[in-house]
Amino acid sequence: MKLQEMREKTIDELKDAVVEFKKQLFNLRLQKSTHKLENTALISTTKHSIAQAKTLIKEKGVI
Fold this sequence. Notes:
Largest sheet: none
Number of strands: 0
Order of helices and strands: HHH
CATH class: Mainly Alpha
CATH architecture: Orthogonal Bundle
Structural class: mainly alpha
Strand content: under 5%
CATH topology: Helix Hairpins
Shape: elongated
Radius of gyration: 13 Å
Helix content: over 70%
């Protein structure tokens, strides 16, 4: 999900997105530990998405 798409979402939708990203990150870590993950860059990309969503939640909470 791109940053512009995230900016259009509400706080509740962003919180749901964070939960989904965390589930995805968990599954990616499991795949990595069983040596089934081919693209390990997905882990850092997912972490980056979580951080972006959390930042937007804080920004929208202040406004």
